[in-house]
Write a structure and sequence with these properties.
The protein contains five helices and six strands; from the N terminus they run αααβαββαβββ. By secondary structure, it is an alpha+beta fold.
Length: 163
């Protein structure tokens, strides 16, 4: 992939709502080149989806996110891929990562509440034959996601005292 496409990706990663015209102006190139480059990256599945980062703590909707460490026995001939595929096909699963270290997969799930997330682990994930063990961590608060800081900083309203 060339430097031009990388620059477009950097701009879209920062704000996917930027128009092709804005990107062209930022890069000092004709808009048509940006349109073609984006279309090629979409066709090649380099750009897979345009999404919005939501601060769910500001929304009146209960949601629980859990990160689950999973140790598995890889399948002969397919390694970790077959088990990862079986897991990522569940609708509760938001992300699955192959990891180095103490566990093999890191699975991110969302549920309506703690019970729903726990039921996913006990009824769907743990019964898979290749799963040796799981360790579930519930996210209590998100401070930063995808480079976006969620904390509202309060202004210091104290009076300045000088000698």
């Amino acid at each position: 992939m060339n430097d031009f496409k990388h620059k477009i990706l950097d701009i879209l990663k920062e704000d996917s709502r930027r128009s092709t015209n804005e990107i062209a102006v930022m890069l000092g190139v004709p808009e048509e080149g940006v349109i073609v480059a984006i279309a090629e990256m979409e066709a090649d599945h380099v750009i897979v989806k345009y999404s919005t980062v939501v601060n769910w703590s500001k929304v009146d909707e209960e949601k629980v996110t859990a990160l689950i460490e999973v140790q598995i026995t890889p399948e002969r001939g397919r390694g970790f891929d077959a088990i990862a595929e079986r897991i990522y096909l569940y609708p509760e699963v938001k992300s699955v990562y192959l990891m180095s270290g103490a566990y093999d997969l890191l699975v991110e799930i969302e549920g309506k509440n703690l019970r729903e997330a726990a039921m996913f682990v006990s009824n769907k994930l743990s019964p898979i034959d290749a799963v040796l063990s799981t360790k579930t961590h519930f996210i209590l608060k998100k401070y930063k996601q995808d480079g976006i800081i969620f904390e509202d900083k309060e202004d210091d309203h104290r009076l300045v005292i000088s000698p």
